[in-house]
Design goal:
The protein is of the alpha/beta class and about 270 residues long. The protein is about 30% helix and about 10% strand. It folds into two domains: about 120 residues, Rhodanese-like domain (Oxidized Rhodanese, domain 1, 3-Layer(aba) Sandwich), CATH 3.40.250; about 120 residues, 3-Layer(aba) Sandwich (Oxidized Rhodanese, domain 1). The radius of gyration is 18 Å and the shape is globular.
């Protein structure tokens, strides 16, 4: 159960840690942290996807080091035993990125959930928000890394010939086909050789909830061609919406451990 409904969260708020991990595409000129300061779900803490990433990388929001991640979670008051619900107020469902990061660094997958429909659905259904500052009591959090959950550019290039896994790209069909410019100016058009395209928005309903399991099964069936259904690697523009695909696929494949090409097109498409 990687998803929880707004009704479930409203009934269980006092038993979970709530995290707002909103992130917006740079070209939208929106400030997610400022939006959080104006309104958020009661007791939600803010997670900055850009700040809590590898600060030594020239690529956007790459996975941080194990040591930095441990420091981050301690400062946010997160414990290993915490049941966590993540939401966002984003068009790209950025909560899925934090879901993936928590699993990558060893949080129990049975304790990490994404709010289906996010803050928009929460507000549409008239559940309360506030702007109160949250007091955070620091904790100790021991981190591990599940390195099998991430691919680097060398592995992606090697796979073009060996075809050990299938790469599925969550960008729009137009970007995948190289018909339009990339949002980031230093990137060429196109896609990774032998990869397939599955725009992340196809997995969502109009209210940004995920489609039903039956619908998701049909969507993935039409895209996945690799004989090993667990050897699926998701990519996108910069590692955010690939995690939307990873979560959706995990909803219909209980044996799947999310795997993401962290650099995604921000790395592969560099001019």
């Amino acid at each position: 159960m990687s998803l929880v409904s707004t009704t479930w969260l409203a009934q269980n708020q006092e038993y979970v840690k709530i995290i707002d991990s909103s992130w917006h595409m740079p070209n939208l000129n929106r400030n997610a942290r400022k939006e959080y300061s104006l309104e958020h779900i009661f007791n939600a803490i803010y997670f900055d996807i850009d700040e809590y990433s590898d600060q030594n990388s020239n690529l956007p929001h790459m996975l941080p080091t194990k040591e930095y991640w441990q420091e981050i979670l301690c400062s946010l008051g997160i414990s290993k035993s915490d049941k966590i619900v993540i939401y966002d107020n984003s068009e790209v469902i950025s909560s899925c990125r934090l879901w993936y990061m928590l699993l990558y660094f060893g949080h129990n997958k049975e304790l990490v959930y994404v709010l289906d429909g996010g803050l928009k659905k929460w507000k549409t259904e008239k559940y309360p928000v506030n702007n109160k500052e949250i007091f955070i009591k620091k904790t100790f959090y021991e981190t591990i890394e599940n390195k099998s959950m991430v691919k680097n550019i060398e592995e992606i290039n090697e796979n073009i010939e060996k075809k050990l896994f299938q790469v599925i790209d969550g960008r729009s069909q137009e970007r995948f086909d190289g018909l339009i410019e990339e949002p980031r100016k230093d990137l060429k058009r196109g896609s990774i050789p032998n990869s397939a395209c599955l725009p992340f928005k196809k997995l969502l309903n109009s209210d940004q909830t995920f489609k039903s399991k039956d619908e998701l099964k049909m969507i993935f069936k039409n895209v996945i061609s690799h004989q090993n259904k667990n050897n699926i690697v998701f990519s996108c523009g910069s590692g955010i919406t690939s995690c939307v695909l990873a979560l959706a696929y995990s909803l219909i494949n209980n044996n799947y451990k999310p795997i993401v090409y962290d650099g995604s097109w921000a790395e592969y498409g560099k001019l």
